[in-house]
Design goal:
FAD/NAD(P)-binding domain, binds adenosine-5-diphosphoribose, 20 strands, alpha+beta, single chain, globular, binds P-hydroxybenzoic acid, about 25% strand
Length: about 400
């Protein structure tokens, strides 16, 4: 089998890249370890920056997003019985964010790629990547129990944190930076209308809670839990009781409904440098992970792919490797800004049981400052909608 660009992984990064390259007349094959059903069911975050909405529109994959996406103009910061609404448009020159589940983006992109006859193979795990330091790389994968070889010109490693691509970069070239946070998120989907207009990020002495949503009938809520927490210890009543306590505000009530989905996600900050080597280019979670507090994971993945799509286009259309050579540095500047913001939001809003009293006092002082200072709220808003560099 042969293609121009081999794409490993059919998450949002791999699927969008396949679409953007197809639109430029560049051939791709997408190899995905899991089944289509699994990819379309996996629940993930769902907060989209304007740039993410724009690139999905440019890819012609935003019809349902434009119909069903919920535009949000700010967030609530809630703690100590108070609620501060931070408005985005007035603080960021008119910018907003859109709530639309990552699961829905994946479904939309798969449907479009399949309708266009893309070579998108599910249940086809990649086992190894070869020759990325030469000009004829190849990918080995397994399909129907048989090993196959895909010859290509470029490889896009869009296979997530646990994929195989990152390890193909020689160990003496690759550097990784990591922080594992001492908590996890228990996330639920509940069949009940959201109890809020904009998302609520809540700090409490019992830990962090987030009230998000998927539609006018479906709420998405999260609770900070211990990293080793077990879902078996979290019956519905305990989840709702904890959400009620942590989100409590005088005069406000949390509406409850049947829980249709639940999962626990560990929280990690991680960056791999460089994001490319020879003919291999990493994008999305394969190269970097952020804790979900800043809602940046999906947006970073989409931004990588936008840059990579342009760079690959430049290579095929104009024979220039400039964009490909700059890819890693271009992405890493945005990645590290988002890493810091996500780490900052996480440490601001979570209860760290291991923190010294001095740190805990500093955290409370910082929370009070962010909810009071116009400059601090401007900065939070600027980062939340997606920071764009001046040059
Ligand atoms: N061969 C083929 N596919 C693989 C392999 C392999 N060896 N290993 C992993 N994969 C697949 C996974 O099954 C998954 O479907 O790669 C895909 C990676 O998709 P995602 O994990 O969704 O990663 P990405 O596309 O980078 O999207 C990043 O995911 O975790 C969230 O917050 C994050 O929203 C962000 C998004
Ligand atoms: C979500 O809706 O899933 C969501 C929103 C904001 C976050 C994280 C998750 O920071």
């Amino acid at each position: 089998m042969r293609t121009q660009v081999a794409i490993i992984g059919a998450g949002p990064a791999g699927l969008l890249l396949s679409q953007l390259l197809h639109d430029r007349g560049i051939d791709t094959v997408v190899l995905e370890a899991r089944g289509r059903d699994y990819c379309e069911r996996r629940q993930r975050a769902g907060m989209l920056e304007q740039a993410t909405v724009d690139v999905l529109r440019a890819a012609g994959a935003a019809d349902r997003l434009d119909r069903e996406g919920l535009v949000h103009h700010g967030i609530h910061l809630r703690f100590a019985g108070t609620d501060r609404h931070i408005d985005f448009p007035s603080r960021t020159g008119g910018r907003s964010v859109t709530v639309y589940g990552q699961t829905e983006i994946v479904k939309d992109l798969i449907a479009k790629r399949v309708a266009e006859g893309a070579r998108l193979y599910f249940d086809a795990p990649v086992t190894s990547i070869e020759g990325i330091d030469g000009d004829a790389p190849r990918v080995r994968f397994v399909r129907d129990g048989v090993e196959e070889v895909l010859d290509c010109e470029l490889i896009a490693g869009c296979d997530g944190f646990h994929g195989v691509s990152r390890a193909a970069i020689p160990a003496d070239v690759l550097r990784t930076y990591e922080r594992v946070h001492p908590f996890a998120w228990l996330g639920i989907l509940a069949e009940v209308a959201p109890s809020t207009d904009d998302l609520i990020y809540a700090y409490s002495e019992r830990g962090f809670a987030l009230h998000s949503m998927r539609s006018s009938e479906v709420s998405r809520l999260y609770l900070q839990v211990a990293p080793d927490a077990d879902l078996a210890d979290w019956p519905d009543e305990r989840i709702w009781a904890e959400l009620r306590e942590r989100l409590a505000l005088p005069g406000w009530t949390l509406d409850e409904g049947p829980i249709s989905e639940r999962s626990i996600t560990p929280m990690r900050s991680f960056v791999a440098e460089p994001m490319s080597f020879g003919r291999l280019f990493l994008a999305g979670d394969a190269a970097h992970i952020v804790p979900p507090t800043g809602a940046k994971g999906l947006n970073l993945a989409m931004a990588d792919v936008r840059v990579l799509g342009d760079a690959v286009g430049e290579w095929y259309e104009r024979g220039s490797r400039g964009g490909l050579d700059a890819y890693s540095d271009t992405c890493l500047r945005r990645v590290w800004r988002a890493e810091h913001f996500s780490y900052w939001m996480t440490t601001l809003l979570h209860l760290d049981p291991g923190a010294a009293e001095f740190e805990q006092r500093c955290q409370l002082a910082q929370l009070a400052y962010v909810a009071d200072s116009e400059a601090a709220m401007d900065s939070l808003a600027e980062n939340y909608v997606g920071y764009t560099w001046a040059d």
